[in-house]
TrEMBL record:
Family label: Belongs to the peptidase M16 family.
Cited PANTHER family: METALLOPROTEASE, MITOCHONDRIAL-PROCESSING PEPTIDASE SUBUNIT ALPHA
One Gene Ontology biological process: proteolysis
Keyword Cytoplasm recorded: no
Protein name per Swiss-Prot or TrEMBL: Insulinase family protein
Cofactors (names): Zn(2+)
Classification via Pfam families: Peptidase_M16, Peptidase_M16_C
Length: 959
């Protein structure tokens, strides 16, 4: 709860930004380019119930749109993924941009107060009420405040009458019944201050500076980060005024999507919300100024933790959608131009002497205030000038010469495939995604079309999408050049803005030439020899898993489902994973997926591989888990054979190119600085390693050591596992089992024989919980008021299923107590949590950890509170109510997993190599339901009560 997001903008972590742009040929940042569809003249177009007019497009016929007499919009859609569940989204058209200077922080504060008392649900009762129904705080009960909207989210684990009625009652209370009690406001103030501290990261500061420069005189940039002093002083009366001015039915939309009767849901919504009336005077949405000056504004943002990011953007006023075919066609053309330009720069980034790590060209709205079209590009440290020049020249090259037919054909192939797959997979769309799309459509007043109509629209305009039309669309959008040049660096640029402008001017004097047409690429890995022989074929009837083994030792396990039509989830497990990595060489696990995304294959560099795979739904990545190297993802029935070719090529033809080392050398310093820039990042990357005595297989304690690891180190650890490691492949989804077995026989089944895979094995050296329990202090380079604290008790591995599940419930009960004590009572942190970590690779290693983000001065008190809760858990049985609130979300998660391909995948992949996982699946619900308060107390006494835990404190480097 309380994610103060900057929606519709790049709030990507610096890690994701640097790594993704640098090392992936695929787009990294969200693109809202879903095309729409033309409609037969006889069909109703637009959304009359919402007052949305369109001459060309009709909405998805499965959606019921409505508006109450008070003006509140609603949308209802029946959907069965997940089966028996529902997603609720309630969006109010008010965000941080609506705040006056005196109200800075009010939108987010009101969002928090929505969970802290209303007319019919007293303070402190809301979360327990929902927990008893199986909704976990954070995972199933959440909210977000953006610059231009606020959304409340509920994931209902079932759609029985009590759950649905309670959910609608909760949303109705949020809508117009908040009490905003002054004492409750004071209790919540510390939580919001803590969240503001945690959110004050380099990426957010950069975005704030960029928007302040791009939109001078607008509130938008100033509202990316709330003013801490104003949060300290804002009053309940201020919040009341803001709430009554903006939380009004005519500014709200309720979307409910799930497995229920639509007519009955409509009746319930009308009964619950028709009496809602706004209080006091309504306030208008914010419309800020947008400068359209002729000359570009140049700025230098400085932060020692920021990657060198350069933005060349053309800013224009935001225009509401016209929902016309012409508008939608233009969006598609500009999106394709952005993809082509991004791919060009990705190819340039591969060169050893390239100054850039990659770029993203995109058109995007800025919070219904402005629109931006242009380029974001990431430089290697110290190379902003050369990267700026490269960006300027590539933008100019595209303007003067346009794009090639091959570039456009590649993008078109990917778009059409995505749209075709969306049609085939439409009945398996998640309810949450559908609900999110509905409230976005309401905010933007757009027509939400069906996948079938999207494909029809694209096929109608496809003949007109050529190199010439895409080039023309780009030239029209970019012809006047950037209106803002924003350069982020770690140190101030000598000469400041004048130096940036001079570098840009110097670049314009360099002539550019026309791009070269790329040659067609045929995928080189399609012939593998005689198909492998099946030597074992047996079905686990009660779980619906077919287990097959080939003569070469490959284990293939399949489960056919109808959860997500048109999708197949796959997981190939090879070798021993991180358990076989050196214990003293940190960074290998972190480097692996990044390196594999840019290494290509022996016969194809990464750009050739991207072109060869255009229009195919396949994945070529690789990661490391505790017990295996894992290549996983989703594909389609049509592309399964190609996906299997890719998996076989990954095992036999990984290239280990010198260029990969060069790119890693550019990325590693950025990753190290990003990790060190925030306490949460430091903790996530380091804590398991610290608890295991700094074993490098479990994490990176000193992020700077990422710069020491090389491709040669990675190859030494990974290549033998790829070449010789025992194999198991799991397939789950829309599978023709016999056809899949034949396809596997013709690919992975042809490889030389390997040992039969077994997940369990002796790990050398072993891993154990560190003996020295003195407090460990790690440092971060973020703000001086940021910090994080964890308290960890050693437990065990997960071999004993009952004990493992009891520890999960124990951790959940501790998490609830932490929320009550640290968040609700003390108001010292917004993010306390507890979790039980266990696994089956490293014998005896596990822990129960409590974690909170707190400033340095609050760490002693927080640690004492955590220890006191642990002692109380051991001294007294938990109440039946607390146990049920902890158990219910876990139970609902187990039930949800039965209808999700992703939740079956690991189990299916290991169905032969670790047969015990099958019994664990069969038994876990019965064990969970049988847990008693005395079981929780016994586990607390065994593992945490009176035991000596290990504290990890993440402190500012200055301290």
């Amino acid at each position: 709860m309380g994610r103060n997001t900057v929606k519709s903008f790049r709030v990507t972590s610096l890690f994701a930004l640097a790594a993704c742009l640098a090392l992936s040929a695929q787009p990294c940042l969200a693109q809202e380019t879903a095309p729409q569809t033309s409609t037969a003249a006889s069909e109703t177009t637009g959304v009359p119930a919402w007052g949305i007019v369109s001459p060309d497009f009709a909405p998805d016929r499965d959606i019921v749109f409505g508006v109450l007499p008070n003006g509140m919009r609603y949308a209802i859609q029946r959907n069965t993924n997940p089966a028996g569940e529902a997603a609720v989204r309630f969006t109010v058209e008010v965000g941080s941009r609506e705040e006056t200077d005196a109200e800075n922080g009010a939108a987010h504060f009101v969002e928090h107060m929505a969970f802290n008392g209303s007319t019919n649900i007293a303070e402190g009762e809301l979360l327990p009420l929902l927990e008893r129904l199986g909704l976990a705080f954070g995972a199933d009960t959440n909210a977000e405040t953006a610059l231009d909207y606020t959304t409340y989210k509920l994931a209902l684990p079932n759609t029985d009458e009590n759950t649905v009625d309670t959910a609608l009652e909760v949303i109705r209370e949020v809508a117009g019944e908040l009490t905003l009690d002054p004492e409750a406001v004071e209790r919540e103030r510390g939580i919001i201050l803590n969240e503001a501290q945690v959110r004050n990261d380099p990426s957010r500061r950069r975005i704030a500076d960029y928007l302040q420069v791009a939109l001078p005189g607008s509130r938008v940039g100033n509202r990316v980060r709330a003013d801490v002093e104003r949060i300290r002083n804002i009053s309940a009366a201020d919040l009341r005024g803001f709430y009554e001015g903006y939380y009004r039915p005519e500014r709200a939309t309720l979307a409910v999507v799930g497995d229920f009767d639509v007519a009955e849901m409509k009746r319930k919504i009308e009964a619950e919300f028709s009496d809602w009336e706004g209080e006091g005077s309504a306030r208008d949405p914010y419309t800020g100024p947008v400068s359209t000056g002729d000359s570009a504004v140049v700025a230098n943002f400085v932060d020692p933790a920021i990657p060198e990011i350069i933005e060349l953007q053309r800013i224009s006023p935001w225009k509401p959608s016209t929902n016309t075919l012409v508008e939608a066609q233009g969006e598609v053309l500009r999106a394709i131009a952005g993809i082509a330009l991004s791919n060009r720069i990705a190819a340039l980034s591969r060169a050893p002497d390239s100054p850039t790590l990659g770029a993203q060209a995109i058109e995007q709205p800025l919070f219904r205030t402005a629109e931006a079209f242009g380029l974001l590009i990431v430089a290697k440290d110290g190379q902003w000038r050369d990267t700026l020049a490269l960006a300027e020249r590539e933008l100019r090259r595209a303007t003067e010469y346009g794009f090639t037919a091959a570039e456009i054909a590649e993008a078109k192939a990917n778009i059409e495939t995505a749209l075709r797959n969306a049609v085939a997979q439409s009945s398996g769309r998640p309810s949450a995604a559908l609900a999110e799309a509905l409230v976005r459509a309401s905010l933007d007043d757009t027509v939400l079309t069906s996948p079938t109509d999207d494909l029809a629209f694209y096929q109608a305009i496809e003949p007109g999408i050529t190199a010439e039309t895409v080039s023309s669309a780009f030239q029209t959008a970019w012809n006047e050049g950037p209106s803002i040049v924003h350069v982020s660096t770690k140190q101030p640029i000598e000469g400041g803005e004048e130096a940036i402008a001079s570098a840009l001017e110097e670049s314009t004097a360099v002539a550019v030439t026309a791009p070269q047409e790329a040659a067609a690429v045929d995928f080189a890995y399609e012939e593998w020899g005689a198909p492998g022989e099946v030597v074992f074929d047996q079905t686990v009837e009660d779980l619906g898993i077919r287990t097959v083994r080939f003569a070469n030792g490959l284990q293939l396990n399949l489960k056919t489902t109808d959860f997500e039509p048109g999708k197949i989830a796959f997981s190939l497990r090879a070798g021993t994973g991180i358990s076989g990595f050196p214990a003293d060489r940190p960074g290998l696990k972190e480097m692996l997926p990044i390196a594999m995304s840019v290494d290509g294959l022996e016969a194809h560099d990464p750009d050739e591989l991207r072109r060869a795979l255009a229009g195919k739904a396949v994945v070529a990545g690789l990661a490391a888990s505790s017990g295996a190297l894992v290549a996983s993802g989703t594909t389609t029935p049509d592309d399964l054979e190609l996906q299997l070719d890719l998996l076989a090529a990954r095992l036999t033809a990984t290239a280990w190119r010198p260029e990969t080392q060069s790119q890693w050398a550019g990325v590693a310093p950025l990753l190290a600085k990003n990790i060190r820039s925030a306490p949460i990042q430091v903790f996530v990357n380091a804590f398991n390693s610290v608890l295991a005595g700094n074993d490098a297989r479990l994490g990176v304690v000193d992020a700077e050591r990422l710069t020491e690891v090389s491709l040669a180190d990675l190859r030494a650890a990974v290549a033998p596992q790829l070449a010789e490691g025992p194999l198991a492949l799991g397939l789950v989804g829309d599978i023709d089992a016999d056809a899949a077995i034949s396809a596997v026989a013709a690919t992975l089944g042809t490889l030389p024989a390997r040992a039969i895979r077994r997940e369990a094995g002796e790990v050398t050296p072993p891993i154990g919980f560190v003996a020295d329990r003195s407090t460990k202090v790690l440092t971060h380079t973020g703000q001086a008021d940021q910090g994080a604290l964890s308290v960890s008790w050693p437990t065990d591995d997960s071999a004993d299923l009952r004990d493992d599940i009891i520890r999960d419930v124990l951790a959940a009960t501790i998490g609830l107590r932490l929320t009550e004590k640290l968040r609700e009572e003390l108001g010292s942190t917004y993010s306390p949590e507890a979790f039980s970590y266990s696994q089956r690779t490293f014998d005896g290693f596990g822990h129960l950890t409590a974690f909170a983000t707190v400033p340095p001065e609050a760490m002693d008190a927080t640690a004492s509170a955590i220890r006191a809760i642990a002692d109380q858990m051991a001294a007294n049985p938990v109440s039946a109510d607390l146990l049920e609130r902890a158990r219910s979300p876990i139970k609902e998660g187990y039930q949800r997993a039965e209808t999700q391909n992703s939740a079956w995948l690991d189990l299916v992949a290991m169905a032969q190599s670790d047969v015990e996982v099958l019994d664990r699946r069969r038994q876990r619900m019965e064990i969970l339901e049988a847990i008693t308060p005395s079981d929780i107390q016994s586990a607390a006494q065994k593992y945490i009560g009176g035991q000596n835990p290990l504290e990890i404190r993440i402190m500012p480097e200055t301290e």
